[in-house]
Amino acid sequence: MRIYTRSGDKGETSLIYGQRVPKNDIRVEAYGTCDEANSTIGLALSHLRKEEWTDKEAFMETMQKIQTILFHVGAELATPQGKEVHWKLKKEHVEELERQIDVWDKELDPLKNFILPSGHQASATFHLSRTVVRRAERVAVTLESELDNQLVVSYLNRLSDFLFVAARYINKKLGGTETPLNPDV
Question: What is the pLDDT of residue 62?
Fold first, then answer.
């Protein structure tokens, strides 16, 4: 597989099935934002490589699965309306996020107020990932009427919640500090 093809040198790219669109097409923005979110998750994971805690392996496997499913989301967004999606997002993907949120949330102190994105480097980076996923969700909502699979928006919505809880979970496991919002500043 060649890295460069020169086919995009005039500001166009191909969707799945070869349809050419401008690089500023809303579909390209949507799947590109998912790619950006995936990269920020990878950055967060890079901050955890040398850390140790009891369920690190399971956590890392879960996150790598999330990264893979984000490619499924990208495939949904890059497939023109009415065409078959090869990596279809399923209801089980949303439900898996919910189950994991519930598992991690049981270990966390209840929130009494908003918190600032902070703490351990990985935690702060998961907060960044959460905000990129929220942007991907907003772009996907713009495309919603053209999406054959409405689970895309649900998945992105749930994924941002998942990443929020993951950020809190990492802070708890690795001694990061959660900074409460001070509304009087």
Answer: 98
